[in-house]
Structure formats: structure tokens, C-alpha cells
Amino acid sequence: MQREPAETLALRALAWLAGNDELLPVFLGTTGAALADLRGRAREPEFLASVLDFLMMDDAWVTGFAAAEGIRPESLGDARAALPGGGNPHWT
């Protein structure tokens, strides 16, 4: 996946997250972000990467977002790989 579609998918994930009254406070608490950060940082690739990192912490969140958006769950990983810090690590 290229960076621009990855950012678009992450923005969709952020919108889904912002509309989830149960999950949004967990995201804010986990990342240390404030509500004001959601709009102000929504165009920062690093912040968008943190949104995908958060969602990928739980399979239910991944499948919930994917089902709501009509996409493959693996698309989140593809998008994350295209954003800063998302390259495949080399363990050797």
C-alpha cells in the first residue's frame, strides 16, 4: 500500500474510533492524546500510525473496524507498514 491510501485508511480508522464511545477513552488514555489532538494532529502521519497501532492491539477492534468499513482486516497492517515506523523489522 502507498502512503496516501494508508493515511486515508488511518483517517477512516480515526473517525471510526472517535465515534466509538467505549473505545475512544481507552485510546486517549493509552496514547496520552487529548480530544483536541484528534483534529489537530489528524494530518500527521506519525499520529495516524499511532491510531493503527492502537487498533491492532486487539483482534476485535480490527475486525470491528474492518466490518464497519467493508475492508479486509489485513488492510490495517498493510496501511501501517506504509506509515512512519511501519517497515518490517529485521531481527538479524
How would you sum up the global shape?
globular
Using the CA coordinates, give the radius of gyration: 13 Å
**Which regions contain 5 or more consecutive residues with pLDDT less than 50?**
none
Proportion of strand residues? under 5%
Largest sheet: none
Sketch the topology as an H/E string, one letter per element: HHHHHH
The structural domain count equals 1
What would the average pLDDT be, to the nearest integer? 90
Distance between the termini: 25 Å
Using DSSP, what is the number of strands?
0
What is the count of helical runs?
6
- How does the helix and strand content classify structurally? mainly alpha
Give helix % range: 55-70%
Quick recap:
With 92 residues, this protein is an all-alpha fold. Helix content is 67%, strand content 0%. The chain starts with a helix and ends in a 10-residue tail after the last helix.
